[in-house]
Amino acid sequence: MSDVRVPLVRAEGVSKVYGTGALRTPVLHSVSLEVRAGELTLLMGPSGSGKTTLISIVAGLQRASEGRVELCGEDLSRMSESQVARVRRARLGFVFQTYNLFPALTALDNVAHVLRMKGASPREADATAREALTRVGLGDRAGHRPGELSGGQKQRVAIARALAGRPSLVIGDEVTAALDSHTGIAVMELLRAHVGPATGVLLVTHDHRLEAFADRVVEIEDGRVVGDRAGSFRATREEAGAA
Ligand SMILES: Nc1ncnc2c1ncn2[C@@H]1O[C@H](COP(=O)(O)OP(=O)(O)OP(=O)(O)O)[C@@H](O)[C@H]1O
Ligand SMILES: [Mg+2]
After folding, report:
1. Which residue range is the domain that position 130 belongs to?
2. CA dist., res. 169 & res. 194, Å (int)
3. Does 20 sit in the ligand 1 pocket, CB within 6 Å?
4. What is the domain-level CATH number for residue 120?
5. How many CB atoms lie within 10 A of CB 120?
6. Distance CA 72, CA 239 (A)
7. Measured in angstroms, how far is the CA atom of residue 40 from the centroid of ligand 1?
8. From atom 17 of ligand 1, which residue's Cα is the shortest distance away?
9. Domains in the chain: how many in total?
């Protein structure tokens, strides 16, 4: 079990420069970010401000140029690629802006695959995957391949895949962008339900309506954190409790 006192993410002084010479592009400038268990954190900012870059560094999908990143207390900056992959597999569910499903696999196998990688038996993996697809409203699409699904359905398969392994942290990049508002709310409720004493969610979004589901909103502009404030989820609950 995770130690709830250790933040799920602790990034300190993270800088990122893409390219060299004439193509040198500094994208992140000494960014620090903490993501805590028990919270749904939003990362908001204009297009090109470095959101996808930051979460991919936090997830160990690429390296920072400078700085230090801990995921569930483990210092990724000091690990080999295979050690990083192990931490990622054990701790993280990641939903990409572009879904990243395996095109040759059915929706069911896309989800079951990660569960098998985590050590589930084929039968266990299939049952859990089916349940996860049902929770995102795709129980009847389990046998379809990504090419036979709409953008929003692919997005929901990716969300089912991220949630199915019950990771400590789910990170999502614009997970509601391809969804209509009804489906978007259902997906946000599922992500919200993932938040527990030892688990949390970090979501990149442009959509201010998602603040209603968030405990915290971190704002980034031109590769710098410019704001860190409370979301409206707690306030809403407390108001509801007081009423
Ligand atoms: N692999 C790369 N090589 C060079 N530059 C890159 C690379 N990836 C991203 N960039 C640049 O880094 C900057 C930040 O990109 P990033 O994708 O992190 O932005 P973002 O905040 O996620 O934007 P959006 O909201 O449009 O998804 C952009 O200026 C982009 O052009
Ligand atoms: Mg992006």
Report:
1. 38-63+78-242
2. 9
3. no
4. 3.40.50.300
5. 18
6. 32
7. 23
8. 52
9. 1
